[in-house]
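Entry:
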Amino acid sequence: MKIAIVGAGIVGVTTAYELASDGHEVTVFEQRSAAAEEASFATAGLLAPHLLNPWAVPGFGHALRLTGAHATLRLAGGMGRANLAWLWRWRSAARQHSAPAAALERLAQYSLARLKTIAIQHELDFEACDGRLVLLRSEAERQALQPALQVLRDAGVAVHEIDADAARKIEPGLSPEAPLAGAIHLPDAWAGNCRLFAQLLRQGTQGAGVQFAFGTRIDRVSSSPTGVAVQGEAELRRFDAVVLCAGMASAALLPALGLGLPMTAVYGYSVSAPLREDTHAPRSSVVDMAQQISITRLGQRVRIAGGAELAGAGAEHHTPTLQRLYRTLNDWFPGGAQLSSSLQIWRGARTMLPDGAPVVGASGLPGLWLNTGHGAGGWALACGSARAVADLVAQREPEINLDGLGIRRF
């Protein structure tokens, strides 16, 4: 089939790879000038297990605080009706534990297995590391995580609850002065450079015949006939199928089709700093559960990621949030990274649905498929959701059960 993909972030690129692997003729439309230039640009880097990643699922491990010095979500620039409605639904999902947590973790584990297969097959070096510690500052944090830990164990994930001494043996760079009550060790967790993987895969798929139309904005998607309207072109470009993988741009295209998804852009930050002293830096990845901040080793750099705000795309960087990232790094790994120069500071959107899960599968309209709304899990879920969509397009039963991840739940 002749298939169009809208969006060349990590989800769009992996979807292009899987569809091309099945023999389809694929064209990817991207408004930016390169792949992985928006939400996939400088992510936290965390792969599966997904459920303990910051902002993974509402109601598992941390409360949504909107005010005070320890607010987990910053409200900036006023609150419109759409954001208020989204917040209400997020908090409702958290209170009722109605997020499809088991389905998300199942997809994340499947996605990691698929990613490993692709990386080995094509010899992709994307600065991967394995193992993760979820750092706990109090026993209360451990108790709050028990529902999430049970979901992970039910999914077959190796989960070890360890004390502070055992944690420091796994990550010897941890400061002996840090208030560490214990940790959750996830030995099979992975992390890696999302943008680097997307670029390497894009180069490979382009060499294999996938067409990438960069600097191209899609104004409209049609299902009857199936195709896309490119900005500045009078005629609809016809395709046999269209897959929307464009984050918030997907949300903008859906209403004209009579479809609606309660998406919003939750902006987060990351700081990538050169490694300063190897023995004082993380070996792999750690998560400060109280702060909802991750610290990950990516090659010769350390990436600190966190923060969440409802604000416009053009909002200025929030200095207190960035200071909290620096402070958290110095709490746990003082001297591990060089923070005085050569920093990459990034602010990007997580396109989130109020239950934390994406929409993967049929749209309900002929020829139109959805692979969007992955929120904080775009990198962790991309390879698995891409393979599942490719199977559905080919009218095959996916290897992974997608119950709870379709559009009908909205």
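The mean pLDDT is 93.
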